[in-house]
Each structure stands twice: as C-alpha cells, then as structure tokens.
Write a structure and sequence with these properties.
209 residues, alpha+beta, five-stranded antiparallel beta sheet, 4 helices, 54% helix
Length: 209
C-alpha cells in the first residue's frame, strides 16, 4: 500500500511537470520577423512530447530570409505553423542556436507574435514557480505517506530534532530572551540614573550662581 502511494505520487508529480511544460510552451514571446515560411507538409506528434500534453505539428517548410533572400528547407516546429498554412507565406523569426560560448549551425524558429519581454518573463517565472511548488509539495506528501510511522518519526527527528532536543532549544531560547530583557532593563535604568544625575548637577550649578 505504501509503495502504491509513492507510485501514485510520482505519477502525479510527472503530470504536474508535464502540465507546467505545456503551459510554458504555450506562452509566446514577441520577436521580429526576419523571414517567410511556406509549409509543404505537416506531421502531427503527441499527445505527450517535449512540449508537454497536446497535439503539435512539425511542418516541412521552405524559408526565405527577408534581408538576404537566401532560401533553404527545414522542419519547423512552432504553434503558428499548421496544416491550414500549407502553401501560404507566413512571417517567421529565425536565428542560430546559441550555446554558452559558441553559436551552432542549428537554426531555431519562433513566431513573431507574442508577449513583450517583461510580460513573457513574468508569466514564465510564475508558471515554473507554481508548477515547481506543487510538484515538491506532492512529492513530499507522497514520500511521507509511503514511510512507516517510525520512518516518519525518524525523518522528522533528523530535520527538526528529537522532542527532547526541541524542548531544550525552546528552553535555551526562552533563557536567552529573558537575559536580553534583563539587559535592556539594566541599560534603561542606567540611562535613567545618568539623566537624573545630569539634571541634579544642572540644578546644583544654578543654585551656586
């Protein structure tokens, strides 16, 4: 039963991660069109892929660079190119894939329509944050549910300490807080006495005059 709970949790985590991938893949970023694409054929793939859940299209297309007029054929995998666009000139953005230190010969494509950079980054960050939090929460719950009572207790003690250690820490924190309050009281009393001494000295100087 515990193993089944863990497996169900892992399946749930996988589903959450794929859903997050589906959402992030559906968030377009606005770019500048620098070429046109004419699709000649399209092939569907899915329902689970590197883009998450859903059916997507990979289209064979002829590209024409707007600036140089250079033409080439490639497989384009973007949401804005579907079988309905076969034979039509569609605006497209392209560039060479960039690595950490080099630019490869592989071409990457994107649709020019989408969100501005700030909105794109915000939506992307929120999607990863929510999806990641949900996945961690479910995974943690599944692991805890799969453990025996003794296993959960051992894990809790490793992370938070034994009941005796927690009680001792609480007692130390209380003692430190009391010590700090006493120190503040002593400082306040010393300041009061100094203020009173200055006041009396001032009055004594006035009486001497």
């Amino acid at each position: 039963m515990r193993t089944l709970r863990l497996l169900v949790g892992l399946v749930g985590v996988t589903a959450i991660l794929l859903t997050t991938l589906t959402v992030t893949s559906a968030i377009p970023r606005r770019t500048t069109a620098n070429a046109t694409a004419v699709a000649t054929s399209c092939e569907a793939y899915g329902p689970i892929s590197r883009r998450g859940f859903g059916t997507y299209w990979a289209c064979n297309a002829t590209m024409t660079d707007t600036k140089s007029g250079k033409r080439w054929t490639d497989v384009v995998d973007i949401r804005s190119l579907t079988p309905e666009d076969i034979g039509k000139k569609m605006p497209i953005s392209w560039g060479h894939q960039r690595g950490r230190a080099v630019i490869s010969d592989k071409r990457v494509y994107s649709s020019p329509d989408g969100y501005g950079q700030a909105t794109y980054v915000l939506l992307l960050s929120l999607s990863y944050l929510i999806g990641g939090f949900a996945a961690v929460l479910l995974l943690t719950g599944s692991v805890l549910a799969a453990l025996t009572r003794q296993g959960r207790r051992t894990l809790l003690e490793k992370s938070l300490g034994t009941p005796e250690e927690r009680a001792a820490k609480k007692q130390r924190d209380k003692a430190e807080d009391e010590e700090w309050q006493q120190k503040k009281a002593r400082i306040a009393e010393a300041n009061r006495r100094n203020k009173e001494a200055r006041r009396q000295a001032k009055e004594a100087r006035k009486s001497d005059q």
